[in-house]
Structure formats: C-alpha cells, structure tokens
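Subject: AraC-like DNA-binding protein

B.,
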Amino acid sequence: MREQDAHGPEPVRRHRPPAPSGHSFRIGRGTEGIERLEAALVGTAFSPHRHDTYAVGVTLAGVQTFRYRGEQRHCLPGQWHVLHPDELHDGAAGTDDGFAYRIFYLDPALVQDALGGRPLPFVADPVIGPAAIPRSLDGFLAHLDEPLDDLEAAEITTAIADVLLAHAAPSRTGTAALDIDAMRRVRALLAEDPTAPHPAAELEAVTGLDRWSVARQFRASFGTSPSRFRTMRRLDLARELILRGRRPADAATAAGFADQAHLTRMFRRAYGVTPGAWAAAVRPA
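Prediction pasted inline below.
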C-alpha cells in the first residue's frame, strides 16, 4: 500500500464535468485483473448494462443514481458503490450538474484467490458509506497514473474481498463444493482464444464434468457464465483494437463478432454506450 502523509489520503479533487453533455473517461494504469477508471457524465445516461467484474467505486462529485436489482439507488459524494458481476444496472446523474466517480473493475478470479475457492460473496445493498471502506482503496484510486505492482494488486484485492465479505448476503449458491481447478481450466481455455467457438463438448472434455455442472460451477466461481466470459474477452480485444485506431467494423471481425452491428449490441450491453461514444469519451491518462 502507498504510504499516506500525516494528513491522510490525498484529497480527491472536485471533477469539472465535461460540457455541455456527454461522457468523459480517463483510463488509469492497471495490472492483470484490475482496471482503474475515472469518469464523468452530464446529461446522457448509461443504458442498462452489466460487467463480468466486480465494480467498486466512489462518487467524487454530484449525485450518481442507478437502478439495481429492482430499486433506484443514489450514491452521494464520498459514498461507495459495489456491483456484483453480471448484475444489470444503468447510470445517470441525479441533478443537471452531472456526476463524477473513480472505480476499480476487479476480476472475480482474484477474489477467488483471496477467498480460497469459496463461492463469490454477493452484496445486495450496493451503496456503502466511506467509514466501511479501507482508506488504502482511496489512495489507490487517487493515483490512477501510477503503476501497480503485484504486491499492491494483492492489497487492493484483499481489501475489496474483505469489504465484500463484510457486506455479503447469505450465499445464493448453496454449499455444493466447487471444482475450482476445473473451472480455471475452462476460464484459461476461453481467455486464450476468445474468438474461437468453444462448444459445450470441449468444456466437458477439459473438466470431466457435464455441461450443466460446468455452467453452474463457473457462475458460482466467477460470477458469470462461460459464454458471457468469452464475449467479454472479445470486447476487451475490440476495445484495444479501437484504441489503436482500427475501424469498428475491422475490430468487430478481428475480435470474433459477426459484424459491426453485433459488436455494437454487445458493447452497449456491457458498457452502456456504443463503441463510437466510448472511443470519443476516452482521454489520455
């Protein structure tokens, strides 16, 4: 963890929203399984979407409002929000001034490492006060442009895992044992070449389990389905290609999507914006 000075963490600067309307994204430096982002939104809302990561962030300015698990939520400056993988949500400003936030996107596999193979904890009430969040997480989000080493990555992961456990609802997956090694083989196979089709029979062969057990255990292990995990890795590839200047149509084909329209549908379902709007909103770190 980065050492803080005698006056505590670096104060979070008030974010000047983009004018007059739209999104602004600043991608921080991350490491394997951890992304950091600073974002601002005025006017245009995020459409309903879902990630395959834990999303753990803090509101910097304005009022962040989002619909999650059938209820409208509000996250004020200084409050944190914790979203479970694959849970549908949107995002909008509660006032005309817009809102800004910083956020971690944490791979559930890292949480699995920290928890020793237990089913992923589920936090039903997504808004958490700052007193319940380790100060170290504030520090790691206050320094987006600094690299993360493996020790810092472990500190971020364990801090977030502890928050998840402290606020988790009773397990929705029961007490059935998980074959974590088999699920990691599935995950590695899908991640190695997400553009390949990977039929169910292939996953059965690599695990020694039937396809229904694979589907259930993969979700309990990583918070999403094998097919959605594959789609998200395709989207990772498409984002990387678009940032390198590839045309969306070319990025779609290279990432394994049927065409640009298919990429756009999947991109919006995952991030709440189109590929073009996302690329236009990203600014240098």
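The first helix runs from residue 108 to 115.

T.
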